[in-house]
Amino acid sequence: MPPVLPLDPPQRLVHSLEGRPNGAAAADWLTALPRLLEQMLEEWDLTAERVVSPGGRSSLIVLVRLPDGTPGTLKLTAPGSSATLEQAALAHWDGWGAVRVLRSRTCDGALLLERLHGEVSLRSLPETQAMLEAASAVRRLWVAPPEGHGFGTVEKHTAAAADTLLAQAPAEVAPLVDEALALRASLVAGAPEAVLLHGDFRQGAVLAAGGERAQWLAVGPEPLIGERAFDLARLVRDRLHDLLASAGAPAVTRRRIHRLADSLEVDRERLRGWTLYRAVESGVRNLSRGSRADGEALLEFAGWV
After folding, report:
1. Which is the catalytic residue, given 28, 45, 94, 200?
2. CB 305 within 8 A of CB 261
3. In the 8-state DSSP scheme, what is residue 79?
4. Which class in CATH covers the domain with range 119-304?
5. Domains of the chain by residue range
6. Checking CA distances to 128, which of 27, 102, 197, 247 falls within 20 to 30 Å?
7. InterPro entries recorded for this chain (predicted)?
8. What secondary structure does DSSP assign to 160-179, as a single string?
């Protein structure tokens, strides 16, 4: 079977991998990608329909058909993205609130998933409705982790990020970084719970399912064990560029925090703290990669919180 990968992988994927610390490994993976794709199609007897573009920032997504004609999605994850942990989280949820895994070979970063409507995420809905659906979707994911799991914790994950934050932060944002790190230390010291989290939950990570099981299902988890407020913090800043262009953005941001916290029974101050920390960490990371506009937008947002 000839490879179906176009001569050039989707540019979003290429550009995202170029900015990663493991750039050499990512480049090798991109070079080997056509052969890996061909291999997985042959071994699982899949018929490729098309490569999804622009696709993801850390994986190649290919729409396929299973031997019986059932539609599926083949996901090949890049180095630095743990297919093992993603598969483990999706298997534990077993289709409850998240996409279902049909087959996996995590040593090669390969996941065969049920087909969702990838072109329709919660971002296609009006803001108020999108937030209501997001709250409903994420609530289903917050369950006790399986025994003997290998997931990392929010505490350890953010400790590693905090070290990088200190090393990369420009001097002019030092006060905001100091506030973020102080909040992070206080939050991990008094965490009220330890549930399975999506880890990168946002409107774009919830796709239309259109089935009897659910109308919307989460995809692309970066699973961690920790408190629910950490999972909501990324959602608070959704549609950031629209928010930046709106009048009264700081007040709108604070109302988002209060509404999400109250609707999901999360402490407002803990959600505010994690929202500020995650925005600062992401902002500094973007600045260090040369994405100045995104970095400055995130730091401006953090200042509103």
Report:
1. 200
2. no
3. T
4. alpha beta
5. 11-115, 119-304
6. 197
7. Kinase-like_dom_sf, NH2Glyco/OHUrea_AB-resist_kin
8. HHHHHHHHH--GGGHHHHHH
